Amino acid sequence: MSTPVLSVRDLVVEIPTRRGVLRPVNQVSYDIHAGEILGVVGESGAGKSMTGNAVIGLLDRPARIVSGEVLLGGEPVHQLKGERLRKLRGRKMGMIFQDPLTSLNPLLTVGEQLTETITEHLDVGQSEARRRAIAALDEVGIPAASQRIGSYPHEFSGGMRQRVVIALALCAEPDLVIADEPTTALDVSVQAQIVALLKRLCREKGVAVMLVTHDMGVIAEAADRVAVMYAGRLAELGPVREVITNARHPYTAGLMASTPLASRGQKRLRQIPGAMPRLDNLPAGCAFHPRCDRAEAACRQDPPPSLSACDGRAACWFPLTDKTKATA
Amino acid sequence: MLAYIIRRVAQSILVLFVVGLVAFSMFRFVGDPIDNMLGQERTQSDVERLRTELGLDQPFPVQYYRFLEQAVQGNFGLSYRQGRPVSEILLERLPATLELATVSGILALVGGIGLGIFTAIRRRGTAANVIMTLSLVGVSLPTFLIGILLIYVFSVELGWLPSFGRGEVTWIGGWSTGFLTESGLKALILPAITLGLYQMTLIMRLVRTEMLEVLRMDYVRFARARGIKERAINFRHALKNTLVPVITITGLQLGSIIAFAIITETVFQWPGVGLLFINAIQFVDIPVMAAYLMLISVMFVGINLIVDMLYFAIDPRLRVDRTAGGH
Amino acid sequence: MSEVQTEAKVRPGRLARAWDSDLAYSFRHTPVAVVSAVVVSILILAAVFAPLVAPHNPFDPATLNLMNGFTPPGQPNQFTQDYFLLGTDDQGRDVFSTILYGMRISLFVGFAAVMLAMVIGVLLGLLAGYLGGWTETVIMRIADIQLTFPAILVAMLIFGIAKGITPPEYRDQMAIWVLILAIGLSDWVQFARVVRGATLVEKNREYVQAARLIGRSPFSIMLRHILPNVLNPVLVIATISLALAIIAEATLSFLGVGAPPTKPSLGTLIRIGQEFMFSGEWWILFFPAVTLLALALSINLLGDWLRDALNPKLR
Question: d(Cα C313, Cα B213) in Å, to the nearest integer?
Answer without folding.
Answer: 9
